[in-house]
Every structure is written in structure tokens, then in C-alpha cells.
Amino acid sequence: MSKRVMNPAARATAVALAAAGLGATMVTGAGSAFAAEGKAAAPVAVTASAAVAAQAETQAHAAAQVKAAAAKATAAKQVAVKKAATKVVAAKKAASWVKPVATYTLTASYNQGGAMWAHKHSGQDFAVPVGTPVKAAGAGTVVKAGPNGGGDGPAYGNAIVVKHANGTYSQYAHLSKIKAHVGQKVAAGQQIALSGNTGNSSGPHLHFEIRTTPNYGSAVNPAAFLRSHGVSI
Description:
Layout: H1 8-94, E1 105-106, E2 124-127, E3 133-135, E4 140-146, E5 158-164, E6 169-178, E7 185-186, E8 191-195, E9 205-211, E10 219-220, H2 222-228
Antiparallel strand pairs: 1-2, 2-9, 3-8, 4-5, 4-7, 5-6, 6-8, 6-9, 9-10
């Protein structure tokens, strides 16, 4: 049997053509795969971009909410501070003058007549038990303190006189104990004595005066004076 022998040149040509065909197929396949990959990647890119945009919008919305909350908190704080300042001012104004005793019964009033006094009554009496804390009605400096009315006479018993910044004076008489001394500065509401029954007194009480000088004989209506300074008795 005879063998079929191919011309070497023809064989080489056939091999080359086969290789070329295979290469074309591979190139074509690769191109198709690349095209397919490109087409599949496009939706992914679009989706990622949309997600980033959505995330940015969410963050912007959250930041706006935080900013609004901070602004609201700041405004609320400012309102609270303003209210607190108003209360402090009101408290300071109210505390400029106070009642000389906290709990009492009003008895003899200013300018009242009677056998108890050589002239009409020069102050307002507050009936209280002996030992009741007596407070300075307003801030000032003690100018009189001691027995014999602090110098105003034995009828007052133990007494204190305080000079105030507005040029008026307050007097506290019939005290059982004096807790302030001449020259001492006192605040409104500060305890300066204990009430008593010393001097010309018909029973335990505080005799309270407002004067235009530190001395007896210059008294004005203490109840009216306190009312004009926001204190009702």
C-alpha cells in the first residue's frame, strides 16, 4: 500500500492557515467576551453612581437635621438664660427690701394715739414671741446699737438703727438680744437681732420705724414706705 506524501511546502501552508484560523477564532472570541463584559459593567457603574448620590443626599439631610437641632438647642438655651437672668434681676429687686420679721401679727400702727405714748405712735408694731429673728429691712450700715434705745431713750429698750443708701434709716426696738454693732454693714434680710420685750413695752413685739434721720422724731409711715418698695405687711 502506498503512502500519501504531502508536499512540504503545501504542508507548511496548511499548518499556517489552520493556525491563522484558530487565531482568528480566539481573537473573535476574546473580542466578544470583552464586549460582553463591557455591556455587563455599564449597569454596575450606573448603580454605584446612584448609590453614592443617594448616600450623599442622606448625609446632607442628616447634617441639616443636626444643624437644625443644634440651632434649636442654642435658641432654647438663650431663652433659658434670658429667663434666668430676668428671675435674678426680679429676685434682686424684690430682695432690696424685706419684712423685718417673717411671721407676726400687726398691732399698733403708725400715728396711732393712746396712753402708751407721749405722742402718737412713731412706728409699726409686729407682735412676735421673744427670740424671734429680726432682719434688716434693707441693706445698709448700723449707726446705732445698744440699750437705752441705742441713744434714743429708755422707752425703746434695746434698739438698732440702720442707715440705708437712699438716705433713710430703719429702727428696730424692744430687742432681747442685739447681734450687730455700730459700723457693721448688713444686707437686706440679714439677721441683726432677736425680738424681745424691753423698754416701754406692753408685751413681746418688734417696734419698727422708718426715719429720715437716725434720731427720734423723724419717723415716716413704715408700712407705706415698705409698700412703695414692693413689700406688703
